[in-house]
Amino acid sequence: MARIPPSVAAVRLAVRRAMPADGPVLVACSGGADSLALAAAARFVGSSVGLVTVDHGLQEGSAARAASLAAWATGAGFDPVLVETVSVDGLPGGPEAAARAARYAALSAAAARTGAVAVLLGHTRDDQAETVLLALARGAGPRGLSGMPARKGLLVRPLLDVARSDTRKACAALGLVPWEDPHNSDPAYARSRVRGNALPSLIEALGPAVVANLARSASMIAADNEALDGLAADALDALWTSGPADTPGAASLWTAGSDPLDGAVASPSTSLGGRGRRRLLKIDVSDLSGMRPALRRRVLHMWARELGAPGSALSHRHVEALDALITDWHGQGAVHLPGGIQVVRERGALVRVP
Questions:
Q1: Is 86 a member of any domain?
Q2: 89 is an annotated ligand-binding site residue
Q3: How far is CA 38 from CA 42, 105, 119, 137, 147, in A?
Q4: What residues make up the domain containing 142?
Q5: Where does the record place the tRNA(Ile)-lysidine synthase substrate-binding domain (predicted)?
Q6: 20 to 30 Å CA-CA from 15: which of 22, 37, 145, 154?
Q7: Would you say 30 is a known binding-site residue?
Q8: Does 32 count as an annotated binding residue?
Q9: Is 77 annotated as a binding residue?
Q10: Using CA atoms, how far apart are residues 21 and 15, in angstroms rounded to an integer?
């Protein structure tokens, strides 16, 4: 029996460890080396594996490439094989953010239609290291520095401990020809500059282990985040009183529209910490002022999310402004949160304005 190339074995082992025990899965595949190697490994390991590719329509010939990838997937035994065509027009953020939002919406819809229990993404250890560097450059806190989670909702990233060089070697060993996305080398994009210049410079200065070290740091920070978020959720539970009844005239603030792929809050009975309760519209300042700053800010972040502020737009400055209502109170006005939400300090409490 021919010996399995180490790169192929590494990708298959990572996928086997991450593959759900039962139920169909979809592989999100662009045709690049990472997702192509992932798809091949998932097809080898899994018993019910489909493939979905998203055509953003941003490059000439994208529809033809998507059709070619779909034809390969059909011939390779993937079932179902889906091509999702999306538009980024009118979506918020820059081109990268808009394309990402459209892509995840399409993956969510595909998972719902096919009953997939997981959507596999091809992000590698190198992608994780790039994410950490970008977060550092933005001045991100622990959430940003924790990088991409291995699992979140239906999203599964099996290759976060696999080097990008191994996915390329795996494709070569299997006779797969990946598509080279020109955006990955376009200096107009920050991630491309990190990939092409910043990270190679760090490797040259500090050695090749820097990639694995950055990815490992993200994993450790993510574990710490999970523990601290649990403490913050417990603290927020302890602050719960009687919800909307505390604020005369206030209506229920629960809104729908969460993305099941991201595992976000999807119903009034589920808070970010997994606790069932109505939204807490008022918190006494005295209950918050004695908390350690790191815990208090996490509580405020969770509370803002429970009020309906979208997590993608909720930033450090919003939480700092809420915190200032407690620690630097001098009669300032309302704090404006994303989603048109306002919070004021009133009679010794932080209150969501009706």
A1: yes
A2: no
A3: 6, 21, 12, 29, 20
A4: 6-225
A5: 284-350
A6: 145
A7: yes
A8: yes
A9: no
A10: 12
